[in-house]
Amino acid sequence: MTSSHETGRPPRIVIVGGVAGGMSAAARARRMDETAEITVLEQSDYVSFANCGLPYHLSGEIEQRESLVLHTTGSLAATLALDVRTGSRVTSIDRAAQTVSVSAGSDTYDLSYDALLLSTGAVAVQPPIDGLDHPAVHSLRTIPDLDAVNARVDHLLARAASDRQPRAVVVGAGFIGLEAVEALVARGLRVDLVELADHVLPPLDAELAPLLADELRAHGVGLHLGVSATSVTGAGDDGSATVTLADGTVLAADVVVVNVGVRPASDLARDAGLDLGPSGAIRVDSDQRTSDPHVWAVGDAVEVLVAVTGAVGPVPLAGPANRQGRRAADSMLGRRTTPQAPVLGTAIVRVFGLTAAVTGASQASLARAGIEHEVVRIHPGHHAGYFPGAEQVHLVASFAPDGRLLGAQGVGREGVDKRIDVLATALRAGMTADDLAELELAYAPPYGSAKDPVNMLGFVAQNVLDGTMPQWHASELDTVGEETLVLDVRSVDEFEQGHLEGALNIPHTELRERVDEVRLAAAGRGISVHCASGVRSHIATRVLVAAGLDARNLSGGWLTLAAVRPDAAVRTDSAAPALAAV
User: Would you say residue 574 has pLDDT above 70?
Assistant: First the structure.
């Protein structure tokens, strides 16, 4: 950007779009340059609002709607001397003249800039569903969206007869869809959730998703997975609708919330001739500069380098958008920047009593990228087991052959957030299994364990990677059953509640005295060992290996197996196979 020293006047910065990226840039630019002329052009009436909080006002958890409005034009003018113009849509960019054309109601005008920042965000993907213009159909991305859903729900609850519970259908089981489901259930609606993928929260590895599915069902949510909605049709004079699914299922709905993802809002950049990536996102350098040296871009509209896999595309998350806005402001003012690091995609969601969180590459994305990796699964308590209230944390992590952490995911009722945050930090630092094993984390019985779950991931990964603990995976079950002896080292009671067909049951405490029995049963075959979580079977595997036998331990134990292959259990009584703690 041409400096104020070269022109003899303050720099003119124009920002198109507010919210996370745009307002972060505007605020940083003002703090760094008190003389700059900073104009923010926002086409909606809300330039700074907490869009991540929308579902929590819908649920009533955030009681006051005004809490979602972080700043107004007046507050921004008073605190930061920003010229914020809402209801102002930028229709075109003249790069040669360095002007933008603005439409504001019946007025149009041109505005010149020295530096232009595009924070145009994303727009909702419109799935191929007939009838999306039905009045019962809503999205949940903006405050007007929220107001419309709230008004509809209020109306339904006000007129609901005691014998008729209002019904909602949510299409899309991603982060926002799950939050919408939770909110609508909290308001007293009966909810059906429709997801085209074969499990809820598609970014989550499939083996953890059944935990969320069970939690949803426990709260009365009807799940329709691996199927799409095909149409929304009118069903009555009361504004209700009928949602038809591809498998022929017909769902009654008083309100329909559709959130199946977003795409970059990059039309303005495309029409101006700026470079776009294959996904349609705006291509930027590590300082957020576009292919035009006077134009920067941030937020959901830009493409980023994804950590680990090296994929390039948009990652619509608030954290990266805020940091990009700060970086762009520094770059526009000629200051030193912290270049954009590859994005980890760290994200978290609450699903009633459970928390699910991810960071880095999933198993599916690693497989698509052809990246060799080992997967480690553990199910420890979130704090010391002897202290009351310990809850199981289900953690899955992937490691490169050299020990580098590649990604991690977790589901549980307590303690998931801080473990994923630690693991996200470890990913950013390029840590290995050895590093995780040696992390010194805060410990007291109410908060954690002397061997924290993060340490345990490191310990288990060390054992796997150096060959101390050969492992097998639930996905190999069919081959394992045909070619090896399956040794179940759980207690007799656990075995009787559910076990694999043909498995030999020897509790791990008896194994040392019964090794010859195992040797005879194996008859030269390998031995596939398992327990509930992988802890007892690790001990058993070491006993067998020491005896000269070819033994492997099931990664994640019965807990993981029951999630991946719920059809595999043979029951010897009426009890279902228990997802029991260690």
Answer: no
